[in-house]
Amino acid sequence: MATLSRTRRFLVALLAVSAVGLSGLRQAGAELADLAKVPLANSPSDAVLPNLMYILDDSGSMAWNYMPDNVFRTSSGDTLNNCKRCTSSSCSGPGGTGSNGWQCGNDQNDPDNSSNNAPTTYGEAPFYAYGFNKIWYNPNITYTPGIDFQGVSLGDANPNNASDDAYLGGGNTNLVGGFNEVIYCNTSSPTGADLTNTAKCRKNGLHNVNPFAGTTSYFLYWGSSGANVGFPTTAYYNKVLIKTSNAHYYNIAPHEYCSDANLVNCVLATAAGASPGSPNTIPAPVRYCKSATDAGSAAVVSGNSSGTPRCQKKYDRSKYPYPRYGRFTRVDITPATATYPKGANSVRTDCAAAASCTY
Predict the structure, then answer these.
(1) pLDDT per 10-residue tile (average), the chain, 359 residues
(2) Which residue, 167, 221, 257, 337, has fewest beta-carbon neighbours within 10 Å?
(3) Distance in angstroms (rounded) separating the CA atoms of residues 271 and 273
């Protein structure tokens, strides 16, 4: 009898479980739920309610226009090596000496030096490249207008007078003809006419590239001689901030393809910038190196040195502080250019069905 009773109870339980499983086939309806009002650690073990935490970050970093920190700023005392640095007669690549290192701003003879109070974002190629500065404009994604507290769209910005902050206000930028850009001059005091004279002043991505067989023009930022260099060079040593440029950004294509996810073992890309084939199929548009020499080399940099990788994927403030950039190309966004090619990784919804995207 006891065995039969246990069998009946088992069958009843089985049927109940089956009924619950079948009920899951019905469409679930939304229900109100009580939320915990105390930390879970203080709740009775037999009455743990769902917890919901809503956090707003209003720290100073929310106003930065760069990410991660090592693009412009790290912990106190760190030396950054992201952009070129100039003296009155020459320019150097990554490494060297100087109290501020090679940030993309706030350095000796840079236009945002404290002597002229220019902003920190003055347009060095790495800073304006979404492959390095992760929150710079990325043409592969769709940007939608902000919304208000009721979820209503704030509408498209006026490109001739775009608000710098749709919620807090404070300033506007003319994206058509009032964009910040640093240009490189061979005179310490260029006139207004000099700024538009390529014999006196030049722009990165426009005046320092040559066509390469089978590929589009590009430049290597750490280059120091020839036409395919990243300004400034010894001749064009003086960085000058202008505020009358059009909106633009830089792509960084791989200069190397690697066989491992940590970007240690690599080979040079083809002339057209493609992978040379298996096993080197992982693109390396930006790597970080142990030495300034490796970071600035136009030749392939691969494998180990003294038992550790010469370069790797991740930045390390003490071991791998020197960025090794790939191939820079510049894209100017102007009303005169009606259409723009979509990238291979584009997920844009506004031009998903088209071969290109419009101005």
Answers:
(1) 45 41 50 72 70 80 81 68 73 57 49 42 82 92 91 93 84 90 86 92 87 69 74 79 90 96 96 92 97 91 96 94 93 93 88 91
(2) 167
(3) 5
